[in-house]
Write a structure and sequence with these properties.
The chain has two domains: about 160 residues, 2-Layer Sandwich (60s Ribosomal Protein L30, Chain: A), CATH 3.30.1330; about 170 residues, PurM-like C-terminal domain (Phosphoribosyl-aminoimidazole Synthetase, Chain A, domain 2, Alpha-Beta Complex), CATH 3.90.650.10. Strand 4, helix 5 and strand 5 form a beta-alpha-beta unit. The chain has about 350 residues and is an alpha+beta fold. The model has no long low-confidence stretch (mean pLDDT about 90). The strands form three sheets. The protein has a seven-stranded mixed sheet with strand order 8-10-7-11-9-12-13, sandwiched between helices. Strands 1-6-4-5 form a four-stranded mixed sheet, covered by helices on one side. The radius of gyration is 21 Å and the shape is globular. The protein contains ten helices and 13 strands. The two termini are about 15 Å apart. Belongs to the HypE family.
Amino acid sequence: MPENNKIRVQLQCPMPKLDFDVITLGHGSGGVLTNRLLDSGVFDLLKNDILDERHDGAFLELHGKTAFSTDSFLVSPIFFPGGNIGELAVNGTVNDLAMCGATPKYLSLSFIIEEGLPVKEFWDILVAIKFACEKAGVQIVTGDTKVVEKGKGDKIFVNTSGVGPIHPKANIRVKNISVGDKIIISGNVASHGMAIMSVREGLEFGSEIKSDTTNLNHTILRLIELFGESIHLLTDPTRGGVATVLKEIAQSSEIGIDLFQRDFPMDEQVASACELLGLDPLYVANEGLFIAFVSESVADAVLTALQEDENGQNARIIGSVVAEHPKQVIMESAIGGKRVISMLPGEQLPRIC
């Protein structure tokens, strides 16, 4: 989140005075310590009418076709330039729902905490979750907290699940992709993964590389309002990056994809970091980015609308769907050569999201 917003939220959410500084096994026992931790943190900070019920589950009002998604987050380090594991968890599930054409409404939130985690770090994660929920317009309505012994976790793991109604104009399906569709990417590639790696490797550049983690639901819903079923497919290229997700789509839809390297937007510092570490940016994780397959007839209008949005200022058309070479993704390089794009064969960047 922007630095001024972080300061504002921290001032609004001062950490309560507690008589313990670290998380212990007792905080996961379900007894007095668990209740003190949750009362002073989760329930107070994230309070709403549904969460205040403190039931084993949540009572929700949902109407019509609904999307559901779940994801687990185990990023290392848990604090990184541009965010932390808390807002990453909220944004990740919010964005998965948005890719379905849904309006995210309710999230569950579960923690697995390693014994010894400083309470201050847990509080900072909760504050980030609160801010991310407010920004996305979602509510935490149920959850769970467990504590594991020292050495049997890695500080904290977070799981979020979410539900939301699908927009009536949305029809987001792989089967809707057709020859001639244009492929639009919403912004610079590889920023999240390289923000994590720059911290791990101690890399320093002229300016700090920051994660692109953010919620995309408001941006997506505006596009659906404007262009409806002309948006055939939406996906966010997180683990495995742009290359892997496009290869998966080409295989499942049995279509060919042509890409043009010169059209890919990327920050210069990110490109330098990738080159320094010998990483292909097309396989690096993103957390505030989406790819849209849209009808050729509306592609330019979609791009214009997206570039007017705060989450799409660097959006570009990067390729198209073709009848040739079905199930294959072909990249034309900046100098005119071509190469076949495959899925990521292994784990290029572990513990990235």
